[in-house]
Write a structure and sequence with these properties.
By secondary structure, the protein is an all-beta fold. It contains no helices and nine strands. It has one domain (2-76): F0F1 ATP synthase delta/epsilon subunit, N-terminal (ATP Synthase, domain 1, Sandwich). The chain has a five-stranded mixed sheet, with no helix packed on it.
C-alpha cells in the first residue's frame, strides 16, 4: 500500500509499505493492505511504518490519518 506522511512543507515518508502502526484516543492500531476506509485523529505517538527494507519510526505530536483505496495519508501538525 502507498503511505505518505507529511506536513504542509515537509514530506517525511512517501513510498510503499507493508503496514503502519499509530495511536488514537482508543489506543494502538495497525493499518494493513486493503484496509477499509478509515479516518482518525492521531494523538502524540510514534508512527511505525514497516517496509520490505525494515521499519521507520516517526515521533509525532498530532495529526490526521486517512485510509482509502489502499493509500494511507498522514497529515501532521493540524
Amino acid at each position: 500500500m502507498k503511505v505518505k506522511i507529511h506536513t504542509p512543507f515537509t514530506v517525511y515518508f512517501d513510498d510503499e509499505a507493508n503496514s503502519v502502526s499509530a495511536e488514537n484516543e482508543t489506543g494502538l492500531f495497525d493499518i494493513l493492505p486493503r484496509h477499509k476506509n478509515f479516518m482518525t485523529l492521531l494523538k502524540p505517538c510514534e508512527i511505525t511504518v514497516r517496509t520490505s527494507n525494515g521499519e521507520k519510526k516517526f515521533l509525532i505530536s498530532k495529526g490526521v490519518m486517512h485510509v482509502k483505496a489502499d493509500q494511507v495519508v498522514v497529515f501532521l501538525d493540524v
